[in-house]
Amino acid sequence: MARTGRPKAELTLSDEERAALEEDIRNWITAWNTDPKPYVRTKTADEITSNASPVI
């Protein structure tokens, strides 16, 4: 069976990359909590379920 995708070594983060990613996420959370924007639905429940019904 052929292996697809990137090698495992490429999927792991170095300590520096992990620290930078964590800092970016924490900064995003802080900014979001400072000025939160509520989720606004643009479709009704019926519109959503009518699109999902072929899959279900």
Layout: helices, strands, pairs:
Blueprint: H1 8-11, H2 15-34, H3 45-52
Describe this structure in words.
- The protein has 56 residues and is an all-alpha fold.
- It is 57% helix and 0% strand.
- The chain is flat, with a radius of gyration of 20 Å.
- The model has no long low-confidence stretch (mean pLDDT 81).
Q: What is the first-to-last residue Cα distance?
A: 31 Å
Structural class computed from helices and strand pairing: mainly alpha
Mean pLDDT: 81
Work out the helix count.
3
Q: How much of the polypeptide forms β-strand, as a percent range?
A: under 5%
Q: Based on Cα principal axes, name the global outline.
A: flat
Number of strands: 0
Name the assembly state.
Answer: single chain
Stretches where pLDDT falls below 50 for ≥5 residues? Answer: none
Radius of gyration: 20 Å
Concise account of the structure shown:
With 56 residues, the chain is an all-alpha fold. It has helices at residues 8-11, 15-34, 45-52. The model has no long low-confidence stretch (mean pLDDT 81).
List descriptors.
56 residues, mainly alpha, 3 helices, 57% helix, 0% strand
